Amino acid sequence: AKYCLQLKTAIRNIPLNVYLQLAEIADDPLAMKNLLSTKIDEVLLELGTMKYEEGFTPTPTEQTTEDTTSRKRSTKATKKNKAE
Q1: Ramachandran region of residue 55, left (φ > 0), alpha (ψ -120 to 50) or beta?
Q2: Which portions of the chain have biased composition (kind: Basic residues) (predicted)?
Q3: 25-79 per-position pLDDT tens digit
Q4: Which of 19, 41, 53, 62 could bond to 58 as cystine, CB 3.0-4.6 Å?
């Protein structure tokens, strides 16, 4: 929940942090899109780094989901190989 709150706050603050730059390029929609994309990527990378620095450990539910997904992929690949 803490990570989601940080994400929400960081995303909502992007326009506040770049509003002067946005005003300068307001007549160029592509430049605005590129600026916002860059800033969003920076925020997401920063938050991703924070997540790993905090020592993320998957809960048993997350671990089970990952294991199940891996098994499903493996089973599909095996069935595909047998069909060929």
Answers
A1: left
A2: 71-84
A3: 999 999 999 999 999 999 988 888 765 444 445 555 544 555 555 555 555 555 5
A4: 62
Coil vs helix vs strand at 37? helix
Q: Which residue has the tokens 């590129």?
A: 34
Same domain for 35 and 68?
no
CB atoms within 10 A of CB 16: 7
Q: Is the pTM for the entire model greater than 0.70?
A: no
For residue 77, the enclosing domain spans 60-84
Q: How far apart are the first and last CA of the chain?
A: 46
**Helix residue spans in the chain (DSSP H):** 2-24, 29-53, 60-83
- What number of residues does the chain have? 84
